[in-house]
Amino acid sequence: MKDWKEIKSNLLKGDRRALAKAITLVESHRPTDREMAEKLLKDIIPKSGNSLRIGISGIPGVGKSSFIEVLGLQLIKAGHKVAVLAVDPSSPISGGSILGDKTRMEELSQNKDAFIRPSPTTGSLGGVTAKTRESIFLCEAAGYDIVLIETVGVGQSEYQVSSMVDLFMVLMVPNTGDELQGIKKGIIELADLLIINKADGDTKILAENAKTTYQNALHIIKKERFWSPMVLNCSSLEKTGFEEIKEALSSFDEDSKKSGHFESNRKEQSQSWLDSLFQERLFQEIKENSSLNSQFEKIRKNVQDGKATVREASSEMIKLIKEKL
Amino acid sequence: MKDWKEIKSNLLKGDRRALAKAITLVESHRPTDREMAEKLLKDIIPKSGNSLRIGISGIPGVGKSSFIEVLGLQLIKAGHKVAVLAVDPSSPISGGSILGDKTRMEELSQNKDAFIRPSPTTGSLGGVTAKTRESIFLCEAAGYDIVLIETVGVGQSEYQVSSMVDLFMVLMVPNTGDELQGIKKGIIELADLLIINKADGDTKILAENAKTTYQNALHIIKKERFWSPMVLNCSSLEKTGFEEIKEALSSFDEDSKKSGHFESNRKEQSQSWLDSLFQERLFQEIKENSSLNSQFEKIRKNVQDGKATVREASSEMIKLIKEKL
Question: Are the beta carbons of A270 and B310 separated by less than 8 Å?
Answer without folding.
Answer: yes
